[in-house]
């Protein structure tokens, strides 16, 4: 379950004889291979959630020994790209939200490195894509994905602006180094995925393609907005919402989604399937809780290890804010999350069941102590940097205090819909199964408690289009049933 080795395969040869280029023996680290945008170099990156190191070799000499750029150090993450005589180094060393350096290839020790883009507290740099005359920089600012163009001749860095206040933008599949244009992707709660040709010199954009919505779609029928929930430690948690413009005023049914782990951000994208709920009067919302990286690296650091409970309290604060502001009521509010987001669902179900009409927990990671105490299970060792090693008493006590399975109690719970996959090798089916069994044994209410185990699916559910849509339909049917809405209208 871990990519750990890099081989070279000569075409036509027996793969059993492929030369080994690099092997990563630390179970916390995984390896990936990338080519530089220029096509001149190959990069062998070995990384965990909090440390990395990169080896490089010429792309025309793939069987040569790879050269280590800089050894791994705790807390230091870096990646490489190539432009001209320099390696471009994106690093968080003395720069929590990362900075970009240019290091002469002939001086990889970095004594002559120069700063290309400085660290900023308010913006996270995530990726650099070099072109002949410009750099296309991907990152985050104000809780949204951003793109910046850096002109190598002038040193100017300028952002790309968009009209919609809530959106998501990214660099698409660009493979040509010597070009004045790039392709970028764009979407929002109301705009389907769209692709533009970007003039790297002027910043002008030309629409190339916008995905069709079968049955028709008018963006003017919907309105999106962002509100904030303030938690006791002073953090402001963004909440992105979308609803029909003609939805009646006052509290209405609302689906609140959350994740909050691994630095994975929940971006406001076009929710094609969710239109089925939104068109029935349900407000669709995302709580951008800590543990993700929406507001920078610190947002992630404040939602992991011994700060993990911030993720749960953030989500609860978002639910309370939406209720207090009149968007919904506890009797109209449904929470939804999967995998590590399913852990979030389990934690809030235990601590604040009164806030929700129903909770949907998809392939939920709910038996945290049991899994993290067994390094023989796939992925466990690599997860120590996210959750902590419970063989340390401090981590054991902390994890045990929130682990959903271990904190089920004899109280009333909302309607619950729990899913599992028999072939799931990330959250094995027995986790949601034993959590369901314990809930059934001790909860003191007559609300629905359903477990759906897909006997042919893994962590991401059914792989076929129609099969996947049927899974979504069953989840939405449960939500509509719990809310008392007619699924046939």
What do these coordinates show?
By secondary structure, the chain is α+β, with helices and mostly antiparallel strands. It has 2 domains: 5-210, 7 Propeller (Methylamine Dehydrogenase, Chain H); 219-367 and 404-483, Rossmann fold, CATH 3.40.50. The protein is built from 9 helices and 26 strands. It has an 8-stranded mixed beta sheet, with helices on both faces. Strands 3-4-5-6 form a 4-stranded antiparallel beta sheet, with no helix packed on it. Strand 19 and strand 20 (236-244) form a beta hairpin. The longest helix has 19 residues, at 465-483.
Short description:
With 489 residues, this protein is of the alpha+beta class.
Structural class, from secondary structure content?
Answer: alpha+beta
Task: Note the overall shape.
Answer: globular
Please give the CATH architecture of the largest domain: 3-Layer(aba) Sandwich
Using DSSP, what is the number of strands?
26
Distance between the termini: 44 Å
How does the major sheet shape up?
A: 8 strands, mixed
What's the gyration radius in Å? 24 Å
* CATH superfamily caption of the largest domain: Alpha/Beta hydrolase fold, catalytic domain
Individual helix count: 9
Question: What ranges have pLDDT less than 50 throughout 5 or more consecutive residues?
Answer: none
Beta fraction: 25-35%
- What order do the strands of the largest sheet run in, or round the barrel if closed? 19-20-22-21-23-24-25-26
Mean pLDDT: 94
Domain tally: 2
CATH fold call of the largest domain: Rossmann fold
Helix content: 10-25%
| CATH domain class name of the largest domain | Alpha Beta
């Amino acid at each position: 379950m871990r990519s750990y080795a890099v081989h070279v395969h000569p075409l036509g040869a027996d793969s059993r004889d492929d030369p080994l280029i690099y092997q990563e023996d630390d179970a916390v680290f995984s390896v990936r291979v990338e080519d530089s945008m220029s096509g001149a170099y190959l990069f062998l990156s070995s990384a965990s959630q909090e440390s990395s190191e990169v080896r490089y070799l010429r792309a025309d000499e793939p069987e040569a020994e790879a050269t280590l750029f800089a050894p791994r150090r705790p807390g230091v993450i870096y990646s490489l790209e190539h432009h001209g005589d320099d390696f471009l180094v994106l690093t968080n060393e003395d720069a929590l939200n990362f900075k970009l350096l240019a290091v002469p290839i002939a001086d990889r020790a970095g004594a002559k490195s120069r700063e290309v883009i400085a660290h900023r507290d308010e913006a996270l740099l995530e990726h650099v894509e070099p072109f002949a005359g410009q750099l296309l920089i991907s990152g985050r600012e104000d809780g949204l994905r951003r793109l910046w163009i850096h002109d190598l001749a002038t040193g100017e860095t300028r952002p790309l602006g968009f009209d919609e206040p809530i959106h998501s933008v990214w660099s698409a599949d660009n493979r040509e180094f010597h070009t004045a244009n790039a392709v970028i992707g764009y979407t929002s709660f109301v705009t389907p995925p769209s692709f533009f040709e970007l003039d790297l010199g002027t910043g002008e954009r030309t629409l190339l393609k916008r995905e069709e919505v079968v049955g028709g779609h008018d963006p003017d029928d919907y309105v999106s907005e962002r509100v904030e929930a303030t938690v006791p430690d002073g953090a402001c948690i963004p909440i992105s919402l979308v609803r029909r413009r003609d939805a009646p005023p006052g509290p209405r049914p609302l689906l609140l989604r959350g994740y909050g782990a691994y630095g994975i951000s929940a971006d406001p994208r076009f929710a094609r399937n969710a239109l089925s709920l939104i068109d029935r009067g349900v407000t669709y919302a995302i709580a951008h809780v800590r543990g993700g990286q929406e507001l920078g690296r610190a947002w992630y650091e404040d939602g992991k290890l011994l700060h993990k409970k911030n993720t749960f309290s953030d989500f609860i604060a978002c639910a309370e804010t939406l209720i207090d502001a009149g968007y919904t009521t506890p009797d109209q509010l449904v929470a939804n999350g999967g995998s590590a987001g399913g852990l979030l669902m389990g934690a809030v179900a235990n601590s604040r069941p009164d806030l929700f009409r129903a909770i949907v927990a998809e392939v939920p990671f709910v038996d945290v102590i049991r899994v993290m105490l067994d390094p023989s299970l796939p992925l466990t060792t690599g997860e120590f940097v996210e959750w902590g090693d419970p063989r340390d008493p401090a981590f054991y006590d902390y994890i045990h205090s929130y682990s959903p399975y271990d904190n089920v109690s004899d109280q009333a719970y909302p309607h619950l819909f729990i899913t599992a996959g028999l072939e799931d090798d990330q959250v094995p089916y027995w986790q949601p199964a034993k959590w369901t069994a314990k809930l059934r044994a001790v909860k003191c209410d007559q609300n629905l408690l359903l477990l759906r185990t897909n006997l042919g699916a893994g962590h991401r559910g059914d792989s076929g289009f129609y099969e996947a849509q049927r899974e979504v339909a069953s989840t939405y049917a449960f939500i509509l049933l719990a809310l008392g809405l007619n699924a046939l209208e």
